[in-house]
Amino acid sequence: MHSSITAAYLTRYRSLAAASEAAPAVLLPLTGAQRRFLITRRRDPRGRTDVVPLFFAFPRGTVDLPRLRRAALRLAGRHPALRGEFTVLRGTPVLRLGEPSVEVAHVPVDRAVDPAAGPAAPPEPGQPDGPARSALRRALLDWPADGPVLRLLLAAAPDDEEELLAVALDHAACDEQSLGLVTEGLSAAYAEDDGAPGAAGLTVPAEAVEAYRAAVEGQLAAEANAAGAAAQAHWAARLGALGDPPRGERPAGAAWSTGMAVERLPAVTGAARGGVFPALLDAVAAAAHHLDGGGERVLALGYPWGGRPADAAPVLGCFLNTLVHPAPPGPPRDLDALGADWWDDLDHADTPYDEVVRAARSAGASWSGALDGLLTFEDLHRRPPLLLAGAAGREVHLAGRPLAAPLAVSASHGEDLLVRLAWDRERYPGAAAEAAFATLLATLRRHLGAPV
C-alpha cells in the first residue's frame, strides 16, 4: 500500500508537538513547499536560503529607515510566518514562534565590481546606478542562515537620484499572494506610523496563530488527498520519459554566475489571457531545447502553482507546489493540446513534489528530480504597489541572482508582459543564451499573435 509522505510528516510533527515542553502554539507545521526549502537548505554545503526579493526605486530621500523599521515590525507582529524561525527539530521541519524576525538596514555602496554577477548588463532606462544594485545583490547573497525572515535593505550611490529598496523574504514565508500582503501591509503600517515603538516583544494574536495553523493544515490535507493512486498514475504517465543529462553535464548546486535578457511585449487582453501561461510553457521549452543542443531528451520544466486552501484566511506563508511539465523535442506545440495537458496537470497540482518524483521513477524514468528550467509567472494586477510617504515604488529587476536551474524565465503581466530569461554563465555562453531568448520570444509571439 502506498505510504503518503505528507501523512508520515504529520505523524512526526504531532508527536514532536505533543512532547514539547513549550506551549502548544509555539510549534506549527509546515506545508510541503516549506519543508522542501528547509531540507534543500540543510543539504546545501553553504546552507543557502531560497530568497524571494522585490526591488523598488524611490526618489532619493523618500525612505525613512526608522519609520520603515517600525512599519516592518508591526507587519511581522501580525503574521506568524514572520515571527519566528523555520527550523528542523529531531528531523522534523517546523515553524517555532518567537519575536518578529525583521532586518531593516542601509547597505553601503562602493564602485567595486561584483564578480558574482559577471559583466554588468546595461540598466533599463531610469534604473538606479549599477553600484547600488551590486551592493544589494552582495547583501542578499550573504543571507544569514539563522537570520531574519524579512529583510528590507536600502542602497544608493552618492550621485544617484534614486534609492533602491530591496524587500526580501525567506521563500518559506512567501508566495505570490504573500507578496501582495507584504506590499499592502508595509504601505498601510508606514502610513499609520505615529512614531511609537514597533511590535517587538508583543504576543502574536491567538486568532492569527489559529488562522495560520488552519491554512497550513488545510494545505496538508489537500496534499495528503492528492498523493493517492490516481495522482500517482497521472504523474507516472506524464513524466515516465524524463531523464537527467549524462553524468557530469549538469553543474552541482545552484548557479551563482548568471546573466539576464529582458524584453517587454504588449499586454494580452480579453479571452487570450487564458492562453498566456501555456504559451509561456511552450516558449520556455523551445528555449531550453535550443540550449540543450537539439538533443532528443525530454526536458523537465518546473513552475510554481497554487494558492490558499478554500476558505483559508489571507495569511502570509508559502502554499505553492512546484509542478513539472515534460517538454519533448520538436516544433512548437498546438496551444489547445498543450493547454489541455496543462489543465489535466492542474487537477493534480496538490501532489507533493517528492511524490511526483516517486511516481515518475516508478514508471521507469531515470530522473533525479532535477529541473532543466524554471518558469514563474505573476499577474501584477493582483499585487498592490508599495507606497511610502505617498510615493509608489517603481519595480526594477536585478540580474546576477542565484538560480535553482540552469535556465529560469520570469514573466510579469501588468501594463505590459515583461519577460526575463536568466541563465547559468558557467554552462551556457552569452551568445547561446541570447539565441535561445530569441527562440523563446518568437515562439511566444507566434502563440499570442504579437508582431514578430
Question: Any overview of this molecule?
Answer:
This protein is of the alpha+beta class and 452 residues long. It is built from 11 helices and 16 strands. The protein has helices spanning 5-19, 32-43, 65-77, 130-141, 176-192, 206-225, 229-239, 276-291, 335-346, 353-362, 430-448; strands at 27-28, 51-59, 84-89, 92-97, 102-106, 150-155, 162-170, 258-266, 299-306, 320-327, 373-379, 387-388, 391-392, 394-396, 407-413, 416-424. Strands 8-16-15-11-9-10 form a 6-stranded mixed beta sheet. β3 (84-89) and β4 (92-97) form a beta hairpin. α1 (5-19) packs antiparallel against α6.
Order of helices and strands: HEHEHEEEHEEHHHEHEEHHEEEEEEH
Q: Report the span from N to C terminus.
A: 53 Å
| Strand order across the largest sheet | 8-16-15-11-9-10
Helix tally equals 11
Helix content estimate: 25-40%
- Tell me the Rg in angstroms: 22 Å
Structural class label = alpha+beta
The global form is globular
| Strand segment count | 16
Low-confidence sequence ranges: 113-129
* Mean pLDDT across residues: 87
Beta percentage is 15-25%
Largest sheet, strands/sense/barrel: 6 strands, mixed
